[in-house]
Amino acid sequence: MPIIIQHNTMIPIYEQIVAQFRQQIADHQLPAGEALPSVRRLARDLQISALTVKKAYDQLEQAGLITTVQGKGSFVAQIDPNIEKEQQRLELEAAFDAAINKARQFGLADAQIRELVALLLDEAD
User: Who's near 42: CB < 8 A, 6+ residues apart?
Assistant: First the structure.
């Protein structure tokens, strides 16, 4: 479960950690019950502040992806498949929303955006 931090990006380090753990959990590289590295160990390995790792773990816990047991550590949570599908749908909606906003910034009308999406869907088949 390697976590790779990119220091030459505008994405905060804790968000990079959250995104990579989310991806690993979604890809089942980290199964339910799997122990995550301790906050101190991950901070040492990545050469970053323990507070940054703690912030990432807190976000993962709020999202229901991990559970933390005092004195034992943090573990990948058992994820309800319905919640997982809903999370995936929300991420997909956000990606579409960003793409639509970018298309509008480029001056495309809604009809042109629909036409482009239809074309891309046809090509994907």
Answer: 3, 17, 36, 53
Q: What is the pLDDT of residues 60-96, one digit of tens each?
A: 999 889 999 999 999 999 977 777 777 788 889 989 9
**What one-character-per-residue DSSP string does 60-112 give?**
HHHTTSEEEETTTEEEEPPPPHHHHHHHHHHHHHHHHHHHHHHHHHTT--HHH
67-71 contact pairs (CB < 8 A, 24+): none
For residue 33, CA distances in Å to 18, 64, 65, 78, 106 come to 18, 13, 11, 7, 46
Q: How many Å separate Cα 76 from the centre of its chain?
A: 14
Instruction: Give the pLDDT score at 89.
Output: 87
* Token digits of residue 35: 């122990």
Mean pLDDT of 98-123: 94
Task: Name the pTM for this structure.
Answer: 0.68
